[in-house]
From TrEMBL:
<keyword id="KW-1133">Transmembrane helix</keyword>
<keyword id="KW-0812">Transmembrane</keyword>
<dbReference type="GO" id="GO:0000270">
    <property type="term" value="P:peptidoglycan metabolic process"/>
</dbReference>
<dbReference type="Pfam" id="PF02698">
    <property type="entry name" value="DUF218"/>
</dbReference>
<dbReference type="GO" id="GO:0005886">
    <property type="term" value="C:plasma membrane"/>
</dbReference>
<feature type="domain" description="DUF218">
    <location>
        <begin position="71"/>
        <end position="210"/>
    </location>
</feature>
<feature type="transmembrane region" description="Helical">
    <location>
        <begin position="32"/>
        <end position="51"/>
    </location>
</feature>
<protein>
    <submittedName>
        <fullName>Uncharacterized SAM-binding protein YcdF, DUF218 family</fullName>
    </submittedName>
</protein>
<dbReference type="GO" id="GO:0043164">
    <property type="term" value="P:Gram-negative-bacterium-type cell wall biogenesis"/>
</dbReference>
<dbReference type="InterPro" id="IPR051599">
    <property type="entry name" value="Cell_Envelope_Assoc"/>
</dbReference>
<dbReference type="InterPro" id="IPR003848">
    <property type="entry name" value="DUF218"/>
</dbReference>
<keyword id="KW-0472">Membrane</keyword>
Length: 238
């Protein structure tokens, strides 16, 4: 091969090498840009979802529609004043029976009656206690089973405001109910005003939002047995 041809071959190789490297850099830049866009979109989705969840939670305890009667009342333990609110609804005739779900096995009817300042006879006649449920998933399963056993398909659900949305998701996963009316119990120490959470409230909301996203993912993978009509957040009006 002549020197001139050698030189041309070498120059061609160098040019191809530079072109390949430029192409690789271009591909890497595009991938990085797409990855950055995906991160921004995902972050925006999560943050936006959390803001909507916080706003919806704040609106829950303010209520809206007048609370009508249902077949029965279910209260999920784990938050302050939940049981007291549910017992009060039972006393005012908003449901035929009350299920307290997730009670510690060591807690007796007498203790619950004393804690809520309620006549023990009301607990004996109209209150059922579930000690099997260990979490929100179990609450939904046990409460739905209880409702079916008693022929109830319209429930008033009492739980904390921040816990309500995830609870409803779990009830929808189980299926079998016609409607749920949420009655949310507000923790005043979690809110600075009607819609702005305190530092402690923000921590609880963030933790609960992560659990809510996980519950939604499980529900989307499992599929709901049948849609449940969820009434607007209600306020008690005797």
């Amino acid at each position: 091969m002549k020197p001139a041809e050698d030189r041309q071959t070498a120059e061609k190789g160098q040019l191809e090498g530079r072109t390949w490297w430029q192409h690789l850099r271009h591909v890497r830049k595009r991938r990085f840009a797409l990855l950055a866009l995906l991160v921004v979109m995902t972050t925006g989705f999560i943050v936006g979802g959390f803001v909507r969840y916080t706003e919806a939670t704040a609106a829950l305890a303010r209520g809206g529609d007048r609370l009508l009667k249902a077949d029965a009342i279910v209260v999920l333990t784990g938050g302050a004043n939940r049981i007291q609110q549910a017992v009060s609804l039972l006393q005012s005739g908003h449901g035929q029976r009350l299920l307290i779900s997730g009670v510690n096995p060591g807690t007796s009817r007498t203790t619950l009656a004393r804690m809520t300042d309620t006549d023990r006879r009301l607990f004996d006649c109209c209150v059922d206690i579930d000690v099997a449920a260990l979490d929100t998933v179990g609450n939904a399963q046990e409460a739905t089973r209880w409702a079916k056993d008693h022929g109830f398909d319209e429930l008033i659900l009492v739980t904390s405001d921040y816990h309500m949305e995830r609870s409803i998701v779990e009830f929808e996963r189980v299926g079998g109910l016609k409607s749920i009316t949420p009655v949310a119990v507000r923790r005043d120490d979690f809110w600075q005003d009607d819609s702005l959470p305190t530092t402690s409230g923000l921590k609880v909301l963030l933790t609960e939002y992560v659990k809510l996203m996980a519950a939604r993912l499980r529900a989307s993978l499992d599929g709901a047995d049948a849609p449940i009509a969820v009434a607007a957040a209600a306020v008690r009006q005797d």
